[in-house]
Amino acid sequence: xxxxxxxxxxxxxxxxxxxxxxxxxxxxxxxxxxxxxxxxxxxxxxxxxxxxxxxxxxxxxxxxxxxxxxxxxxxxxxxxxxxxx
Length: 85
What we know:
Number of strands: 6
Shape: globular
Structural class: mainly beta
Oligomer: single chain
Order of helices and strands: EEEEEE
Helix content: under 10%
Strand order of the largest sheet: 1-2-4-3
Number of domains: 1
Distance between the termini: 28 Å
Number of helices: 0
């Protein structure tokens, strides 16, 4: 099992990134559903990786806090993460 997580960081050009990894259970099934950016009001770029992780680069450099709601793939339980720079 590899636990899922979401993280935030600032790159060398001061862009803010949200990094999401859905995790894998013992049967290699993703623990969390895919990240949903439909309610994001800022412009962003997504980079999809072979391990099913996603690196999202936000174009607004003034963001200081992001609320993420991770939804379990198996029972739809919510896990709330508040990420601050």
